[in-house]
Amino acid sequence: MKLRIKSTKTTILILGIYQIVGALLGFYIIASILLKTGEINGALLLIYLVAVGLYSLSFKAGSLLIRKQHKRGLLLSMLNQTVQIFAVGVGAYTYNFISSGRLGGGVEFTNGFEMNMDVALTSRFSFAWNSGEEYYMYINLLAVFLIYVCIDIYEELFKKDKAVSITEIEPQSEIHA
Predict the structure, then answer these.
(1) Is the pTM of this model over 0.90?
(2) Beta bridge pairs of residue 4
(3) How far apart are CA 57 and CA 79, in angstroms?
(4) Cα–Cα dist 83/133, whole Å
(5) Is 102 exposed, middle or buried (0-12, 13-18, 19+ CB in 10 A)?
(6) What is the pLDDT of residues 112-144, one digit of tens each?
(7) 88 - beta bridge partners?
(8) What is the DSSP letter of 167?
C-alpha cells in the first residue's frame, strides 16, 4: 500500500515545491532577524551560518527534484528531512529545525511533565547553548512520512528487481547414471 499520490511525477514536483517554499520562508526569517540584530558576535554568526546551510540544503534538494535530477534530489531530500525529525532541549542546549512544516508531538519537562501536539506550516530554526534551562523532545512525524515517501519513490525509480522470472531460467540437462 502506497501512502502517496499515485503519480510519481506529481509527487516529486509537490515535494520539490514544498522544500523550496520552506527554504525561502527560512531565508526570510533569517533576514528579518538579522535586520533586527544590532551586533553579531562569532557564536551568533555561526548559528546563522548553520541555519543558512540547512535552508540551502532544503532549497538544493527541492531544485534538484524540479530539474528532474531525481536520484540526487531524493537523497538530499531524505537528508533534509532527517535533520528535521527531532527537536531537543537538554539543559542549556537546544536544537529545532523545520523547513515548511511540522506535524508531531513531544514531551516537555521544563516546568513539570507536559505532552504537546504541534502543527506548523512555517519554517523555524533554533540552535542555542548556554541559554537557560529547557528540557523537551519533539518528533516531527511529517518529516518521517516524507522520508518514507522519498524512499518509496527512490526504490520505484532506481532499485532494479533482482528476481528472476521462470522464462529466464535455462532448463538443465538431465544426468543419468
Answers:
(1) no
(2) none
(3) 9
(4) 23
(5) buried
(6) 888 989 888 888 888 877 777 888 899 999 999
(7) 95, 137
(8) G
